[in-house]
Amino acid sequence: MAWVQIRINSTNTQAEPMSDYLDEIGAVSVTFMDSQDTPIFEPLPGETRLWGNTDVVALFDAETDMQQIVELLKAEHYLNENSAYKIEQIEDKDWEREWMDNFHPMQFGKRLWICPSWREVPDENAVNVMLDPGLAFGTGTHPTTALCLEWLDGLDLTNKTVIDFGCGSGILAIAALKLGAKHAIGIDIDPQAILASRNNAEQNGVAERLQLFLADDKPADLKADVVVANILAGPLKTLYPVINQLVKPNGVLGLSGILSTQAPSVCDTYAQKFTLEPVQERDEWCRITGQLN
Length: 293
Description:
The chain is an alpha/beta fold. The chain has helices spanning about 10-25, 65-75, 95-100, 145-155, 170-180, 190-205, 235-240, 240-245, 265-270; strands at about 5-10, 30-35, 55-60, 85-90, 105-110, 110-115, 125-130, 160-165, 185-190, 210-215, 225-230, 245-260, 275, 280, 285-290. Strands 8, 9, 10, 11, 12, 13, 14 and 15 form an eight-stranded mixed beta sheet that branches. Strand 5 and strand 6 form a beta hairpin. It folds into two domains: about 5-90, Alpha-Beta Plaits (2-Layer Sandwich), CATH 3.30.70; about 135-290, Vaccinia Virus protein VP39 (Rossmann fold, 3-Layer(aba) Sandwich). It has nine helices and 15 strands. It comes from Pasteurella canis. It catalyses: L-lysyl-[protein] + 3 S-adenosyl-L-methionine = N(6),N(6),N(6)-trimethyl-L-lysyl-[protein] + 3 S-adenosyl-L-homocysteine + 3 H(+). It is an enzyme of class 2 (transferase). It holds the Pfam family PrmA. Its EC number is 2.1.1.-.
């Protein structure tokens, strides 16, 4: 099958919402690339570009009217007259596997490694989570996921129950189990996330200790010692009554998917019932943690 792709020079802040919108208008896949490593744009004579630090690469069926895609992106203000983008026909290949070839083992905290199955484990004595990039969000490469993994690595999870709210690939729940948690629960609104989490848990030998629920199907009395939610600031504030009820007395909470500029409003929401620790920031994103009062 023939494909066409559009590469758009963007920023860390804009890349995530642009990715969601590209999915909505028909992209079959969207990936991010560090623009420092991929100098793909060549300005026309006399042209000045406003350069960002992230390239968003979206793949479409070759029959897609790409001019219409460009106009839709302009209408939503993801492109303007100064935007740098490039549309090109590409040969057919396994694009997911192509991206996976560039995925390497990564360390989070002192004990935890996230490793793709086709790479050699760097430290056999470490806590190794085997995770292949797939359809659901969460491989550890995004700062929000990294912040959550490092937080979990720093906790004593022995005999604890952990809830991964918005589990995506299941990476946080699986990491918690391999770090010593007794039991984990993954919750998501996307059936694909439930499937991906189950498959990844089986690959890591922890499926028997992981329960998975679609958000509407979770038990009403569900509670855990540790709750982690790596979603977005808006939903975190909207879902405060739900997330708050998931934490056991004296339990701890970790929140991410939050831009640094959004942290104060999220903190104000959760400070009603949680004693919050200092906000941790990385690359414009942050993590908020605290203990239930």
